[in-house]
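Please go through the sequence line and token line underneath and see whether the fold suits the sequence. See right below:
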Amino acid sequence: MVKAQILSVISRIGPEVTGIYVVDDCCPESSSDLVIQMCLDSRVHVICNEKNQGVGGAVMAGYRAAIADGAEIIVKIDGDGQMDPKLVPRFINPILQGQADYTKGNRFYDLTNIARMPAVRLFGNALLSFMTKLSTGYWNIFDPTNGFTAIHARVAAHLPMERISKRYFFETDMLFRLNSIRAVVVDIPMDSVYGEEQSNLKISGVIPEFLRKHLQNLLKRIVYNYFLRDMTLASVELVVGCGLLLFGIIFGSIHWLQGIQQDTPAPFGTIMLSALPVLIGLQFVLAFLGYDIANVPKRPVNQDLP
């Protein structure tokens, strides 16, 4: 699919782009050979990974080459024709204007486009988007697996590229890494384009893996942002809230099981001693979430980075 579209994609990239990096991640179609033989655009540089590293490894290879050549903003688009190169100015403008460090596509702004999406994509994206909001701290974005992105080169250079997930979790892990440096992320509306191709991403297969990785990133983000880098009232609310919730659930479960075994109803005082910590703990946790939602990065950091 990429080999059939790659030359067309390159030809539609506008003059605002000064360098084009085609990354061949051990493509079975040898798409890089086609580009080398047929493409006459002097801006094109072909990079070939010795081993298949997945989308993350391919993007990082492109980032490194672009940074080494002095790029200011790096845009990533796929070679399969599903991303319109004419949208590149729309993606780079917020970064040029100092409003963002990283921009990404969002196919869910236009209700007409949403109606054309397959139901399984809608369900999977909604679920993944909610998990992404929790684990990355970017509550203001949607469509986290969208691969049409732009990033300030200074921000890209500051990312731990060797630690970013290289497979299907790449786009989401990028957001987690960006939050760790407090980068501003902005969604860019775009149309969805679906041909007759079959996606390699199977929702039923990746959700268990994504759940595990989202949980890992959520825990790391909370520890780093609320206990190591800074401590606020929200940190206290989270600790107290989780403690009360656990106490109420465990205490209530123990006495509920004892009541079943002894066939006697639990005393009113025991019920209240179980319910009150749960209710109060839930309020504390919701207060923490309210703070976390309001704590989305708002000031671009690219000018502050070395």
About this structure: The chain is about 55% helix and 10% strand. The first helix runs from residue 2 to 11. The chain has a mean pLDDT of 90.
